[in-house]
Amino acid sequence: MKPTLVILAAGMGSRYGGLKQLDEVGPNGEAIIDYSLYDAIRAGFGKVIFVIRTDFAQEFKAKFEPKLANRIEVGYVYQSLDKIPAGSVVNPEREKPWGTAHATLMAETVVHEPMAVINADDFYGSAAYRVMDEFLTSSTDDNEYSMVGYNVANTLSEFGTVSRGVCNTDENGNLTTVVERTKIKRDEDGIFYYENDDRFKLEENTPVSMNFWGLKPNVFNYLNQGFKDFLVHQGGELKSEYFIPLLINDNIVNGTIRTKVLQCDSPWFGVTYKEDKPFVQQRIKELIESGAYPQNLWI
How far apart are CA 295 and CA 26, in angstroms? Predict the structure, then answer.
């Protein structure tokens, strides 16, 4: 059974200032998603599920459906604030989406096979899709998950703080903890994450999650219970989000899953801020010139 790729594309992009999921970074108007899809198809994925919002569904489908016809099976699910467990008490003034774990939960009714979950606005590189496809097609343990790890030094933006899942691993390369740090940046004296009024140093090679996860279908059981618990404790807040690293970390601590960190030599880059776009465009140009991608992906 071929694995499925779940692309999380419903975020509001408040720091970016627009719908960055569709922003053009390639020479023929390609978005970062185009390169993710191209790599996933080459690696052997059989289906893609887009998690989007209903308000830009028409524009989104018009951009991608013609390219993907006869190449890969395509489906859509929709993330919205009102998709919460019955009886949950939440802040009526909240506008921010519930986060990446909630977004993944939206795919429960359409994904029944091993899956990779990625962000729409991150470029992960072809090798990352190959190692993930190999894991998802070879792992037979329902409670063995995975993630592609990147060094934190290679994932920063020059234009502001970034959010990353900071990881610790054991001698077997499995995650022991993954903690979402929402304010990481490079200062004059190193890389730090900020929490309240303090800052904490991170080594250059600290492994971080860029939200490229390999999950099994039983993840939806963990997601449902985890999101219910999250809403009980934080449902009244305006900005707290239920992140995939929170789900993974809780279940590692509980002993219900193991998560293998997959190593690869792929480049990572993304567009957290509008100022990141020229850098991304240059990196893609260089990859095309090196022969990693064709000038036009979909001819």
Answer: 9
Summarised one tens digit per residue, pLDDT across range 55-90 is 889 989 999 999 999 999 999 999 999 999 999 999
Domain assignment present for 162: no
The tens digit of pLDDT for each residue in 158-171 reads 899 998 989 999 99
190 found inside a domain: no
Q: What is the pTM of this model?
A: 0.90
- Per the structure, the complete domain to which residue 216 belongs is given by 4-150+207-289
- The CATH number assigned to the domain holding 98 equals 3.90.550.10
Domain count within the chain = 1
